[in-house]
Write a structure and sequence with these properties.
Layout lengths: L7 E6 L5 H7 L3 H7 L3 E5 L11 E7 L5 H13 E7 L1 H5 L11 H8 L23 E3 L6 H13 L10 H8 L4 H5 L35 H10 L4 H8 L7 H8 L3
Parallel strand pairs: 1-2, 1-3, 3-4, 4-5
Helix pairs in contact: 10-11
Length: 258
């Protein structure tokens, strides 16, 4: 009996820390079940075995930071029926997008003994700034259960069931005490998309915005409240300019302070 034809899955890395790919490997039992449904044709973090495209689904981690990246992501898009970006780097430029606010040439001069060998762009940008993307999965790193849901949806031709509400909603659902109300702790929860499982608020820390802006975030109102709690303009700017610094809402609000 011939082997059932399974969709081909590819996992690609651009400029990133590999955290989202490691999250996928952390799926363990679920990943074993996944391999019964798809052929993992390209995933250098997990195996050296490579199958040529085209691919049914491509997961892309990392931001575009070099001229080579631009050429490579266009080729990935060309070979992929469905392209899903995973993580803050791929969806908003990531931590490395902090370069977008400074002089990259000066960074290179200070860090490298031979800066003439460094070939880089002056910006770090999301994958969607360069090619069409079918779905963006937020997080730094992504939530593994959300990743499995997105893959399931892509393989079955349906819309992923991913929450777009704020982290505050998740804190209320889990009974987590609001850090801003209880202790006056600076927190991006009111404007950040849920998904981390209240990781920081559950440990008596404010939300750092790892999952990026929620739908229609009222960043101006939050910034005003943070100012009332004693945050300086520079402090507010730093809160917004971290993991998702180059996301539109966080970048604009951060630029209003300093």
């Amino acid at each position: 009996m011939p082997e059932r034809k399974r969709p081909k899955l590819a996992v690609w890395k651009f400029s990133s820390c590999d955290g989202c790919q490691l999250t996928m490997l952390d799926c363990e039992d679920e990943l074993l079940a996944l391999t019964e449904e798809v052929r993992i044709s390209y995933f250098l973090e997990a195996t050296r075995k490579v199958e040529k495209g085209p691919y049914d689904v491509s997961l892309v981690e990392g931001s575009i930071t070099t001229p080579h990246d631009i050429k490579a992501i266009r080729e990935v898009r060309k070979q992929s029926k469905v392209l899903i970006t995973i993580g803050a780097c791929a969806t908003a430029g990531g931590i490395q997008a902090l370069r977008n606010f400074k002089n990259v040439k000066e960074f290179i001069r200070c860090v490298y003994a031979h800066p003439e060998y460094i070939d880089t762009l002056t910006t770090s940008t999301a994958i969607s700034d360069h090619v069409p993307v079918d779905f963006e999965l937020r997080g730094c790193p992504v939530n593994k259960y959300q990743m499995l849901e997105v893959l399931n949806a892509a393989l079955n031709g349906r819309k992923p069931n991913i929450p777009r509400h704020s982290q505050c909603m998740e804190c209320k659902e889990t009974g987590t005490v609001c850090r801003m109300v209880a202790t006056g702790t600076a927190c991006l929860g009111p404007v950040t998309q849920a998904g981390c499982g209240t990781l920081c608020p559950g440990k008596d820390r404010g939300c750092y915005g790892c999952f990026g802006p929620m739908e229609a975030p009222n960043t101006a109102a939050l910034a005003a409240r943070l100012g009332q709690l004693g945050q300086s303009g520079r402090g507010i700017r730093r809160l917004f300019h971290t993991y998702n610094a180059n996301s539109d809402a966080f970048r604009k609000e951060g630029d209003n302070h300093g």
